[in-house]
Amino acid sequence: MTDRRVTPDPTHVTLDIPAQVTGPIADLRQSPAGPRDRQVLFGDRAAILGRMEGHSLIRAQKDGYCGWVSDAALGPVHPVTHRVTSRATHVYAEANFKSPDLMHLGFSAGLNVVAETATFVETPQGFIPRQHVRPTEARATDPATIAELFLGVPYLWGGNAHLGIDCSGLVQAACLACGIACPGDSDQQAEQLGVALPSGAALQRNDVIFWKGHVALVLDKDTLIHANAGHMLVTTEPIADALARIEMQGDGVPTGFKRLEMPT
Hints:
Layout: E1 17-21, E2 25-29, E3 36-41, E4 45-52, E5 55-60, E6 66-70, E7 74-75, E8 82-84, E9 88-92, E10 101-106, E11 110-111, E12 115-116, E13 120-123, E14 126-129, E15 133-135, H1 143-148, E16 160-161, E17 164-165, H2 167-177, H3 186-192, E18 195-196, E19 207-211, E20 214-220, E21 223-228, E22 233-238, H4 239-251, E23 256-259
Antiparallel strand pairs: 1-4, 1-7, 2-3, 4-5, 5-6, 8-11, 8-15, 9-10, 12-13, 13-14, 16-17, 18-23, 19-20, 19-23, 20-21, 21-22
GO molecular function: cysteine-type peptidase activity
Keywords: Hydrolase, Protease, Thiol protease
């Protein structure tokens, strides 16, 4: 059986048109009126594979994930020169924080910066504080630090953004920011991320713990960070407590421990 997340129904694949997300956040759905699988963010590039009922079937460039997005959320492709590196930011009408805010954007939103001032960058959408953006080539180097940006963000099934995120969305955001290729869902991540650790190996920062249907990132030998439905937010938790709580609630013991391979 094919995986619809990466191999959509071929009867719906009739196009191959480059596109880009033009809204702050867009749901990536199983069908035009179906439930959310994941989310794509402002500036994310995609290929439109087909159209139906005011929606487009897309393949997201960042991870190959396929799903249906509202046509209103897509537009033509423009350069992405910078990305938002704060948890969230505002787009202002002028290079002045007292001017009207026109749009909110979250971490990793892709921007086309056309000019800069001492305190703002200018994009076709408006002005964004310079402190909140970095050039696309300026990768982060520590996934755990990126994950900590999301502390307190509400849990949202299929979420990938500062307004709501799930366990695999958090790990993906942390990895992609550091140049580590990372698929969208935890089962895919368990297969494709990092190198498996032997049983009983000591854990270190940026190791990844997998359960069936869940994933967490290690902050230190005693602590992890994860978006979880137990707390309904992104939180840190002692590893021993998380293992006991998750097993007690019926979700079993970890299915694997892996060590991320950092790009050189």
